[in-house]
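Data availability (excerpt). The following record was deposited with the supplementary files.
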Amino acid sequence: MSAAETTRRNTEEGMGLFKAAMLLFSLLFVLLVLAFGVDWLLRTDNFPVRHVQFEGEFKHVTQQELQTAVMSVVHGNFFLLNMDAIRARVEALPWVYKASVRRQWPQDVYVRFTEQKLIARWDDGAFLNQAGDVVRVSGNDLPAGLPQLEGPDGTGPQVLEHFKSFGRTLATAGLKLERITLTPRRSWRLVLAGGMTIVIDREQPGHKLERFARVYVKTLMPLASDIKQVDLRYTNGFALQQAAGHSAGLRAAPARVGKAGSVRMGAADKG
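Predicted structure:
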C-alpha cells in the first residue's frame, strides 16, 4: 500500500470517527433538551388548570355540586391530572350515573355526565337505576308511580330483569305488574294492579307464568275480581285462592291445565 493510499484511508477513518462523535453529541444534546423540556412542562407551577367545564342534563345535579366534588383533585399541572380520580369524584354524587373526563387543550378539563334514571323503588326508601343498581337520592321532584321491587342485597339487577320479563308476559293477558319480591329462598311474589297476587317458585318461573297467562285469557278473565292469589308452585297446574266477600265457584285446590288451555280443578303435584 502506497503512502498516499495510507494517508487517504487514515483521513477517511478520522472523518468517520468525527461524524460518529458529532452524531452522538447531537443525540445527547437533543435528549438533554427534551429532558429539560419535559421537566419544565411537568413542573407543578407550570400549566395549571384554567377551567373545568361540565356538560350534562342538570335536572338534579347542580354546577356547584360538581365543582365542589372535583375541587380537591383538579389542581396542579394540567398534564399530571388524575383523570380517574376526577371521574370517581363526579360519579360519587348520588344523582350522577356515569361520567367521562378528558383534557381540553390548552389548560381546560372537560367533564361529561349522565344522571340517574330511576326505574323502580327498591325496598325501603331506595331506588333502582337503569342498570339495576341501588341508589339513594332525594329531592322534591322524585318520580311518582314507580313499581316496587324488593329482594336480598345484591339482587337488584336480577329482580329488575325479571320484573321486565314477567311484566311483558302478564301484559299479553291484559294484566299489569306493580310489585315484585324475590324472597330469601328465591321464590317470587308478584302483586298486580287490582290486588291479585301470584306466587312462583324458582323452578322455571317464566314458563309457569306464561302457562298461567294463557289460561287466564281463555278461562279466568271473567273471574278476575274473585281471585285473591294464584299459586304457581306446581309442576302441572296451579291453585287459586278466592277473594273474601266473593262467591264465585273457585276452589282452593290446584287446577290442572288441559291441552286446550282449560282449567280442571283437582289434585296436582306441587314442585
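Summary of structural features: The helical segments are 3-41, 63-70, 83-91, 156-171, 205-220.
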